[in-house]
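Supplementary Methods, section 5.1.

A reviewer requested that the exact input to the structure prediction be made available. We therefore reproduce it here, unchanged from the version used in the analyses.
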Amino acid sequence: MFDANALPPLREVVGRFDIAAQKSLGQHFLFDLNLTRRVVSVAGDLSGINVVEIGAGPGGLTRALLESNARHVYAIERDARAVAALRELAEHASGRLTIVDADALSLDLSGVSPPPRRVIANLPYNIGTQLLINWLTRAEDFLGFTLMFQKEVAERIVATPGGKSYGRLSVLARWLTEPRSMFDIPASAFVPPPNVTSSVINLDVRATPLAPAHREDLEIVTRAAFGQRRKMLRRALAAIGGAEILAAASVPEDVRAEELSVEQFCAIARVVAERRLAR
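The structure derived from this sequence is encoded token-by-token as follows.
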């Protein structure tokens, strides 16, 4: 059984491998094993599941993942100093840790680990949103995601209709997953401390999307709607059909984008698709 408490302290590991956090890589390390264990715990039962960790750094969260009942842990890291530290950690992991030296932005995670897979990660702030969008385009490849973002971004992802945080990312996330905010982590918990509070969120992938729609059409609609979010929908969507497509989708034309449910956006997207095919 893996015991993180039997390993050298993370601060010692960081010093020995000279892993000073690099701003260019968006690195902020978590040394508190109680916090990393809490992140793993909110992901739920991991038995039989392959976990992919992005930006593993010196291995703080990796240690907590190895303590769990996950089948295997795949740690993605591009910093050569951290990769060396992770290789040392792998010597204590009884074959349950695979280190992938790569840039997560250019990596197909379905080729990294076999299913079933879940991503659990303290994402680099500078690429976190783009990574999530990339994964959601192939949401069926995952059971879900337990991710750490800066709080403002997390609020946008889990937002529901009617609030100022609700936008394109909220619609995409809620269409394909069941997003939930789990808990906040203060800046003081990280080394070095960022300028913002962080939040851990869960996104469990739905068996089927919340409503029928093609992603490309949904992106067209949400881009137009939220691109002019202060305007009534009939004006914001004027370039793609305005009041006409809203009527066809049974959506009121005198509302704003932030008031629409995901299902209503999908209804508009289906009309857009029908009009395109009819041309």
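The mean pLDDT is 94. These observations are discussed further in the main text.
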